[in-house]
Design goal:
By secondary structure, chain A is an alpha/beta fold. Chain A has 14 helices and 14 strands. In chain A, strands 1-2-9-10-11-12-13-14 form an eight-stranded parallel β-barrel, surrounded by five helices. Chain B has nine helices and five strands, in the order H-H-H-H-E-H-E-H-E-H-E-H-E-H. Chain A binds chain B through residues 93, 101-103, 111, 113, 174-177, 180-181, 183-185, 225-226, 228-231, 260-261, 264, 284-285, 287, 308-309, 311-313, 317, 342-343, and chain B through 18, 20, 59, 62-65, 67-68, 70-71, 102, 104, 106-108, 110, 128, 153-155, 183-186, 188-189, 200.
């Protein structure tokens, strides 16, 4: 039987079918094009590329950007509406838009140093912006990516964070516990804005579902410390249910970026209709062992993000960790490995992981893992 | 005395209920009734906060409850503080804490800060994105028993090493225990940069800090 393509392998596993080998891939945004990348891709490393599926129009809102010479690197973005104006300050630190330490220019975003919502009166203005936001399908980025990627991997239609994740992480922010304090002090306007966001974002789900992408991806950055179980149950699960209904009607799988500590949420996550837990980080960065996650999420597929903390310990640690990880998950079903969801990976580590994963034939057995280990020494 | 107990109970209840207007009312009434401000804090509000901290550590409460309760207590303290005689934290229980340069994550740091305060520490919180130089200056100025460094990202945790190197250069390293925290830190990493302890868990970090200061207090 001919070997599966990298694309077939990732898709088969995502549909809970067993492929010929354990799929492994690198995210396009972290890919270092060159010798090691070409070599590893020739040896089975796939590609995953998340692309936008829509464009946004905001009506009756004037958006301006202003730089202040006394605050170098800080840009104030003001949204002026008939209801009043709100602003946020972004720090575009050295490295933003450029190669920067272990991250590429594709992944260094500005740093919000003043959030959009700070005072109770900001809620009504932001609600106006939300209610006047229109989403229009634009599938060109996905069509183009699919053509470029071909059989080498998969293309995902990327969506905004869901409404409450956006409020917590982006618009209100969690610094100094601000989100929780607002949730308590300004409960009604916050709920009101949340409801408006849910309504405004509904068309997006259909746009993503109808896109030519292989899967739909939601960049939630779920972290169990930040999102407590009661918050997850109240504000996140109903949205996931709504999204999944729309995606599944159009034959699309739903992948959600959950890269934080998930132990406290594991039973609730099990109850969601999410198909793929993407960016799952096993310990030491996450707090839920991979075998336990697979056991508790029997209906789900896990795409792990290889923990960057292990890379920082050197090649021997990377090798030992990966072999132990494989041993812990035999027979290796419902699992895909991303080389990193955070940083660039050194050529040495990319080749080392490939040396292990290219030989991870499914179903995995202890003997096969042992054989891989021997082949490395 | 009985009257005073009533006010202390009201303060405790306001924090347990995480109720902003109620804590303001309870604090005002307690001060108007000439309740000892120190008792209002140590026997009214602090036990409630300790209870909430305990529930957080056992998983009954989560971060929102911990943060909101601490913020409610802050509101009450604003009213009580002007009535307080000048007093300090327990001798030796002083800690400087910061999220290192380049990192703007402060959830873990804030949990630790809240829980340490509950345990009688004076915490000097330098905030987020703090350069090594500023941390060293704070250690020099405040002479804490412990320095806590936080970073979430694998990129920024490397800055912790810069801080420890700068402490050594300033001749301060042996005068302060260094604990590092954040999702990416490991004991191996702590050893490699010369930190005394690493943790990804706030409760465990508090235990270690208490162990250190108690050993000093016992001398």
């Amino acid at each position: 039987m001919a070997a599966m393509t990298r694309r077939e392998r990732i898709l088969a596993t995502s549909q809970k079918k067993r492929g010929d080998r354990l799929p492994f891939f690198h995210w396009w945004r972290h890919l270092q094009i060159g010798g090691a990348e070409r070599e590893c891709r020739n040896r089975g490393m796939g590609l995953a590329w998340d692309r936008p599926c829509y464009v946004t129009k905001i009506h009756n809102v004037v958006i301006t950007e202003e730089k202040n010479p006394s605050r170098p690197g800080v840009v104030r973005i003001t949204y002026s509406t008939p209801q009043g104006s709100v602003y946020m300050d972004e720090k575009r630190a050295p490295g933003t838009g450029q190669w920067h330490e272990q991250r590429s220019w594709k992944d260094v975003s500005p740093w919000a140093i003043k959030r959009l919502i700070r005072e109770p009166e900001d809620y009504e203005i932001v609600k106006y912006i939300v209610e006047n936001t229109e989403y229009l399908p634009d599938y060109f980025p996905i069509e183009q990516a699919k053509e470029w990627v071909g059989d080498e991997g998969v293309v995902l239609a990327s969506l905004h964070k869901t409404p409450m994740a956006r409020l917590m992480i982006e618009w209100i922010g969690s610094e100094e516990g601000r989100f929780y304090i607002h949730h308590k002090k300004y409960h009604d306007p916050l709920e009101d804005l949340y409801a408006a966001m849910c309504k405004s974002m509904e068309p997006l789900y259909e746009i993503a579902a109808k896109s030519p992408a292989d899967l739909v991806w939601m960049g939630e950055n779920t972290e169990g410390l930040l999102v407590s179980p009661p918050l997850f149950e109240k504000y996140f699960m109903p949205v996931y249910e709504k999204c999944a209904r729309v995606f599944h009607e159009h034959g699309k799988m739903m992948a959600v970026h959950m890269d934080g500590r998930l132990n406290v949420l594991k039973n609730l996550i099990a109850r969601t209709p999410i198909d793929i837990i993407e960016a799952f980080h096993p310990p030491p960065m996450g707090d839920l062992p991979l075998n336990e996650a697979l056991a508790v999420w029997k209906e789900k597929v896990i795409w792990i993000g290889f923990p960057a903390a292990i890379y920082s310990l050197g090649s021997a640690a990377v090798k030992d960790y990966t072999l132990e990880l494989l041993s812990s998950v035999v027979p290796g079903d419902r699992l895909t490995i991303a080389m990193s969801t955070e940083n660039l990976v050194t050529d040495e580590h990319l080749r080392l992981l490939t040396s292990i994963l290219e030989n991870a034939e499914l179903p995995l057995t202890e003997e096969k893992v042992e054989r891989i280990k021997s082949s490395l020494s | 005395m009985k009257e005073e107990t009533k006010y202390l109970a009201a303060l405790k209840e306001a924090i347990l209920q995480m109720d902003y207007p109620l804590v303001v009312k309870a604090a005002k009434e307690a001060m108007e009734a000439k309740v000892d401000p120190l008792r209002a804090i140590t026997e009214g509000m602090s036990p409630a906060m300790a209870l909430i901290g305990e529930k957080f550590q056992t998983g009954e409460y989560f971060l929102p409850e911990l943060i909101v309760a601490a913020d409610v207590m802050k509101e009450g303290l604003k009213i009580i503080h002007p009535y307080l005689p000048k007093t300090g934290s327990r001798v030796g229980r002083k800690l400087v804490i910061a999220t290192v340069e380049g990192d703007n994550h402060d959830i873990g740091k804030n949990i630790v800060t809240t829980l340490l305060t509950v345990h009688g520490f004076e915490v000097i919180d330098l905030g987020i994105d703090v350069p090594a130089k500023k941390i060293v200056e704070a250690v020099k100025e405040h002479q804490p028993a412990i320095l806590g460094l936080s970073a979430l990202l694998t990129l920024t945790m490397l800055k912790m090493k810069e801080v420890i190197t700068a402490l050594k250069e300033a001749g301060l390293r042996e005068k302060v225990k260094v604990i590092i925290g954040g999702a990416s830190v490991t004991p191996q990493f702590a050893r490699s940069i010369g930190a005394d302890y690493s943790t990804t868990n706030a409760a465990e970090g508090i235990e270690k800090c208490l162990e250190w200061v108690k050993s000093q207090e016992g001398r």
